[in-house]
Amino acid sequence: MTAQATPKEMFDRLQCAADHFVSKTPSERSELARATARCVARGSRAWSLEGVRLKQNGIQEQWSVVNTAADVSLAEEIATGPLVTLRLLLLTAAALDEIAQRG
Question: Would the pTM of this model clear 0.85, i.e. be above it?
Answer without folding.
Answer: no
